[in-house]
Every structure is written in structure tokens, then in C-alpha cells.
């Protein structure tokens, strides 16, 4: 199959590289000439484990190429995937669909034959109808079909997720389009038996939002239970284990922490609420989730201040981990942004270390000093705060940390370290959802 991937970001680049690895011929298109230039030099514009090797091998095999010229990518394509961004529209939280519609128009102008146009971007219910209308207006005789195929990969494990998904959702009622999608995903179903779930287009669009909202609810639920644990002297990690062993609940997404962030949950929950409001069908559980999570991120800054004795003026806080999760350089809506803002607002100086996120973080975090290692960040600081659970923070030399810090205080917002280990090292430990000492 010949595939064009419009948008070469976290989703488009991984999807394009994986499709080419399945044996398809893939052209990845992006308007951002800098990204395409980097890719031509085999430099990845994003950090994602395994991606550089996957891209290099498929470029070498002649199945994967990059261009800024959409017409070149779309020419003779069996399927054109739209994987452009759908950020929150400034001001009102609706999904900004201008990139999707601009891409649809440009695709329609350059179609050379019947093709399947596949929306991989996360888009509100009804967007496929509008894409179809645009294609019909610009290219009335093209015979193109519009399909929804939302993406569920997670940054940091994106290749594995793409190649071994729990399911692939395809929304279309058109049998020819279904067949094209079966052919595209066949290598996947042959190898792993990953189910292809066919639905109507609107249903498929909603599945993506419902999935993200449910996961956001699950995280927020355990975060509130963590607060209750602190008040009543229970341990949230044991509560998570105890409820997660029930198959109806499941153990994933039950890690209490500083609140969800990232490029998807915050914007997608907001966009879903807008769809709900527009249709006069309020989603109160999701509304509460958004509100609770927003409050939580800054509250984590206050938690640090409280641990330092209630006054942050003139104090230095070392923050480990800035990206919204480990194994990515993505800083979009990262909880670290709110935690650090709360600390700075209270008069603290913040020193930070992150393995991959500093390039994106620097312009977003004015006033923060960036360090070359966790120990350099901790030098003479009044508290060490783990915000993102990168693997390299899981085996810190706590004894060394206790000596490096001015005040031996560790605020572990990811519950990486057991109390006994911190205590042995001479650190005072503040965790999330754990019984208080004394
Ligand atoms: P991104 O911002 O990393 O990438 C989008 C790319 O599209 C950019 O490189 C941009 O230059 C390019 N672009 C925009 N308009 C274009 C056009 N007309 N022609 C060519 N290129 C164009 O975004 P992302 O994180 O990859 O997300 C893309 C979509 O996938 C969003 O709808 C998002 O919600 C969804 N999604 C993201 C993830 C994730 O983990 N990032 C997971 C699942 C779904």
C-alpha cells in the first residue's frame, strides 16, 4: 500500500515509521521545514525510544521518505492519514480544528485518484462529516472516502503501542474503505491478533474521547483517594493494589501522583466537555475530574512548601523530572509547570534536572536554573522533589543526596521510594497518599 502521513509529530512520525516497517510505502509530510530537514539528516525532531533506529532502517530500505510537499505525498496514495495537531482553541477549550480542515482542503486539491482519507488526529464527533464536506466541495469527482481511525499510542512507549495495540478502531460504513483499512493493518492482525474494531464514524470519534476521559477519571479518582489516605492514615499504594487486583477495576492507571498532564488528557477532556455542553448532555464526572486535576497540580507545589515548614522565601528547591511523563521530551501541560510556578510564586528559587525535556522546558520555565545531573540540582537545596518518574531517578544514591542537600528533605510525588530506604539514608520523606509519621 502507498500511504501519505500528513503531520510528522509524535503521532504521525511514529505511525508513518511503523507502517513502513510493516512493508508499506510511506511518505511523511510536514509543513515545518525544520522537522523535515532534520529527518533528512536522520535526526529525530522528538525524543521517543527506538524511533531513530526504526526510521533509519526503513529509510534505508526505501519504504519511508519525508517531504514538505503535500502534493508529492498524496500522489497515487491508497490512503492519506491526517495526523496534525488538534490543540485546545485559545479561550474556550473547544478542539482547534483549523489544522485538520486546512490539511483536508490541501489533500482534496492534490488527490490524483480515489483514496481513503483517514483522520488519525483526535477530533470531536462530527469532524469526519465536515472533512467529507470539504473533500466533496474541492474534489467532487475524486471518489475519496473519509474514515476515522483514532490513535491510542502513549508517548514513551509509542512504537510498542502502535505495533501491539489493544485494539484498532476504524470508523466507516463504507465496505471499500474498510477493506483498505484491513489491508493497511493486516500485518498487525497477522502477527499479534490485535482486533480491528469497525464502528460508525461518529462512534469511532467518540471512542477516543471516552477512552481518554475514563483514564483521566481513573487517575483523578486515585489521587483523591490518596488525599483521604493522608487524612486517615492509610497507604494509597496498598489501596491501589487491593482494588486493582479486582479484574473489573484493573491495576493500571491507579498510581497516585501530582495530577495528569500531557498533550492529550487535559485538552481532550476539555474538548469532550464542550461537545457535551453543545449537545446539552452534561458529563458531570468529567467536569469534576478536570476541576480536581487543575487544582491538584498547584496543590502539589503547596505540599512541598508545607514540607519545608510553610515558608519558601529564600529557599532553593531541586526538581527532578519536568516532562509530563518519563521517556518523552514533551512538556505540553506538564504538572511540573504548575508545581514550579507555585514554588516560584511563594518566593523559592527552582533548580531543575530532566534527562530529555530541557530544550522544550527552557522557554516555558523562566527563572529556573537547569542542572546537568540530579546531584548538581540538589547541591545546597532545601528540598528535593521528584515530579516525573524517569528510570534514572529510581536508583538515586540517597545517602549522597542527604549530604548534598542543605536540608535532607525528599518530596516524592511519584511514590518511588519506600519510607525505610529514605530513613536509612537520613532523608525526611514526604510521599503521596501515605500515613503521616508520628
Ligand atoms: P504534534 O504537534 O507533535 O504534530 C503535529 C504536526 O502536524 C506538526 O509537526 C505540524 O507542523 C504538522 N502540521 C500541521 N498542519 C499541517 C499541514 N497542513 N500539513 C502538514 N503538516 C502539518 O502533534 P501530535 O502530538 O503528534 O498529535 C497529533 C494528533 O494526534 C492530535 O490530534 C493528538 O490529540 C492526537 N494524539 C496524540 C497522541 C500523543 O501521545 N501525542 C496520542 C494519541 C493521539
UniProtKB/TrEMBL annotation:
<feature type="binding site">
    <location>
        <position position="261"/>
    </location>
    <ligand>
        <name>substrate</name>
    </ligand>
</feature>
<dbReference type="InterPro" id="IPR017476">
    <property type="entry name" value="UDP-Glc/GDP-Man"/>
</dbReference>
<keyword id="KW-0520">NAD</keyword>
<comment type="similarity">
    <text>Belongs to the UDP-glucose/GDP-mannose dehydrogenase family.</text>
</comment>
<dbReference type="Pfam" id="PF03721">
    <property type="entry name" value="UDPG_MGDP_dh_N"/>
</dbReference>
<keyword id="KW-0560">Oxidoreductase</keyword>
<feature type="binding site">
    <location>
        <begin position="152"/>
        <end position="155"/>
    </location>
    <ligand>
        <name>substrate</name>
    </ligand>
</feature>
<dbReference type="InterPro" id="IPR014026">
    <property type="entry name" value="UDP-Glc/GDP-Man_DH_dimer"/>
</dbReference>
<feature type="binding site">
    <location>
        <position position="122"/>
    </location>
    <ligand>
        <name>NAD(+)</name>
    </ligand>
</feature>
<feature type="binding site">
    <location>
        <position position="208"/>
    </location>
    <ligand>
        <name>substrate</name>
    </ligand>
</feature>
<feature type="binding site">
    <location>
        <position position="325"/>
    </location>
    <ligand>
        <name>substrate</name>
    </ligand>
</feature>
<dbReference type="GO" id="GO:0003979">
    <property type="term" value="F:UDP-glucose 6-dehydrogenase activity"/>
</dbReference>
<dbReference type="Pfam" id="PF03720">
    <property type="entry name" value="UDPG_MGDP_dh_C"/>
</dbReference>
<dbReference type="Pfam" id="PF00984">
    <property type="entry name" value="UDPG_MGDP_dh"/>
</dbReference>
<dbReference type="GO" id="GO:0051287">
    <property type="term" value="F:NAD binding"/>
</dbReference>
<dbReference type="InterPro" id="IPR014027">
    <property type="entry name" value="UDP-Glc/GDP-Man_DH_C"/>
</dbReference>
<feature type="binding site">
    <location>
        <position position="267"/>
    </location>
    <ligand>
        <name>NAD(+)</name>
    </ligand>
</feature>
<dbReference type="InterPro" id="IPR008927">
    <property type="entry name" value="6-PGluconate_DH-like_C_sf"/>
</dbReference>
<dbReference type="InterPro" id="IPR001732">
    <property type="entry name" value="UDP-Glc/GDP-Man_DH_N"/>
</dbReference>
<dbReference type="InterPro" id="IPR036220">
    <property type="entry name" value="UDP-Glc/GDP-Man_DH_C_sf"/>
</dbReference>
<dbReference type="InterPro" id="IPR028357">
    <property type="entry name" value="UDPglc_DH_bac"/>
</dbReference>
<protein>
    <recommendedName>
        <fullName>UDP-glucose 6-dehydrogenase</fullName>
        <ecNumber>1.1.1.22</ecNumber>
    </recommendedName>
</protein>
<feature type="domain" description="UDP-glucose/GDP-mannose dehydrogenase C-terminal">
    <location>
        <begin position="318"/>
        <end position="419"/>
    </location>
</feature>
<comment type="pathway">
    <text>Nucleotide-sugar biosynthesis; UDP-alpha-D-glucuronate biosynthesis; UDP-alpha-D-glucuronate from UDP-alpha-D-glucose: step 1/1.</text>
</comment>
<feature type="active site" description="Nucleophile">
    <location>
        <position position="264"/>
    </location>
</feature>
<dbReference type="GO" id="GO:0000271">
    <property type="term" value="P:polysaccharide biosynthetic process"/>
</dbReference>
<dbReference type="InterPro" id="IPR036291">
    <property type="entry name" value="NAD(P)-bd_dom_sf"/>
</dbReference>
<feature type="binding site">
    <location>
        <position position="155"/>
    </location>
    <ligand>
        <name>NAD(+)</name>
    </ligand>
</feature>
<feature type="binding site">
    <location>
        <begin position="253"/>
        <end position="257"/>
    </location>
    <ligand>
        <name>substrate</name>
    </ligand>
</feature>
<feature type="binding site">
    <location>
        <position position="35"/>
    </location>
    <ligand>
        <name>NAD(+)</name>
    </ligand>
</feature>
<feature type="binding site">
    <location>
        <position position="332"/>
    </location>
    <ligand>
        <name>NAD(+)</name>
    </ligand>
</feature>
<dbReference type="GO" id="GO:0006065">
    <property type="term" value="P:UDP-glucuronate biosynthetic process"/>
</dbReference>
<feature type="binding site">
    <location>
        <position position="86"/>
    </location>
    <ligand>
        <name>NAD(+)</name>
    </ligand>
</feature>
<feature type="binding site">
    <location>
        <position position="30"/>
    </location>
    <ligand>
        <name>NAD(+)</name>
    </ligand>
</feature>
Amino acid at each position: 500500500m502507498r500511504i501519505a502521513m500528513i503531520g510528522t509529530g509524535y503521532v504521525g512520525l511514529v505511525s508513518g515509521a511503523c507502517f513502513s516497517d510493516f512493508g508499506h510505502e510511506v511518505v511523511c509530510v510536514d509543513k515545518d521545514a525544520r522537522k523535515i530537514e532534520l529527518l533528512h539528516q536522520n535526526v529525530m525532531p522528538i525524543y521517543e525510544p527506538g524511533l531513530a533506529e526504526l526510521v533509519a532502517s526503513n529509510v534505508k530500505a526505501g519504504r519511508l521518505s519525508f517531504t514538505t510537499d503535500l502534493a508529492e505525498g498524496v500522489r497515487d496514495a491508497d490512503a492519506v492519514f491526517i495526523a496534525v495537531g488538534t490543540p485546545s482553541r485559545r479561550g474556550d477549550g473547544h478542539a482547534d480544528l483549523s489544522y485538520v480542515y486546512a490539511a483536508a482542503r490541501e489533500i482534496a486539491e492534490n488527490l490524483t485518484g480515489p483514496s481513503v482519507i483517514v483522520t488519525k488526529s483526535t477530533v470531536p464527533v462530527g469532524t469526519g462529516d465536515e472533512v467529507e464536506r470539504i473533500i466533496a466541495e474541492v474534489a467532487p469527482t475524486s471518489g475519496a472516502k473519509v474514515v476515522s481511525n483514532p490513535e491510542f499510542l502513549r508517548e514513551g512507549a509509542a512504537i510498542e503501542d502502535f505495533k501491539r495495540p489493544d485494539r484498532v478502531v476504524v470508523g466507516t460504513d463504507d465496505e471499500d474503505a474498510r477493506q483498505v483499512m484491513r489491508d493497511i493493518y493486516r500485518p498487525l492482525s497477522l502477527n499479534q491478533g490485535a482486533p480491528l474494531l469497525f464502528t460508525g464514524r461518529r462512534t469511532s470519534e467518540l471512542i477516543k474521547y471516552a477512552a481518554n476521559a475514563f483514564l483521566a477519571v481513573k487517575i483523578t479518582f486515585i489521587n483523591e483517594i490518596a488525599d483521604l489516605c493522608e487524612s486517615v492514615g492509610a497507604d494509597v499504594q496498598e489501596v491501589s493494589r487491593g482494588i486493582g487486583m479486582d479484574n473489573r477495576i484493573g491495576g493500571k492507571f491507579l498510581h497516585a501522583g501530582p495530577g495528569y498532564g500531557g498533550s492529550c488528557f487535559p485538552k481532550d477532556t476539555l474538548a469532550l466537555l464542550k461537545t457535551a455542553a453543545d449537545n446539552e448532555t452534561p458529563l458531570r464526572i468529567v467536569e469534576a475530574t478536570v476541576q480536581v486535576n487543575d487544582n491538584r497540580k498547584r496543590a502539589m507545589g503547596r505540599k512541598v512548601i508545607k514540607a519545608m515548614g510553610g515558608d519558601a522565601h529564600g529557599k532553593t528547591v531541586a526538581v527532578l523530572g519536568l516532562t509530563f511523563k518519563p521517556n518523552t521530551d514533551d512538556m505540553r501541560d506538564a504538572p511540573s509547570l504548575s508545581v514550579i510556578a507555585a514554588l516560584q510564586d511563594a518566593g523559592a528559587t527552582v533548580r531543575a534536572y530532566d534527562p530529555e525535556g530541557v530544550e522544550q522546558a527552557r522557554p516555558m520555565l523562566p527563572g529556573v536554573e537547569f542542572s546537568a545531573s540530579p546531584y548538581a540540582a540538589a547541591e545546597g537545596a532545601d528540598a528535593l522533589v521528584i515530579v516525573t518518574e524517569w528510570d534514572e531517578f529510581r536508583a538515586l544514591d540517597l545517602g549522597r543526596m542527604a549530604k548534598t542537600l542543605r536540608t535532607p528533605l525528599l518530596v516524592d510525588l511519584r511514590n518511588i521510594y519506600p519510607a525505610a530506604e529514605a530513613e536509612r539514608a537520613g532523608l525526611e520523606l514526604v510521599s503521596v497518599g501515605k500515613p503521616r509519621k508520628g
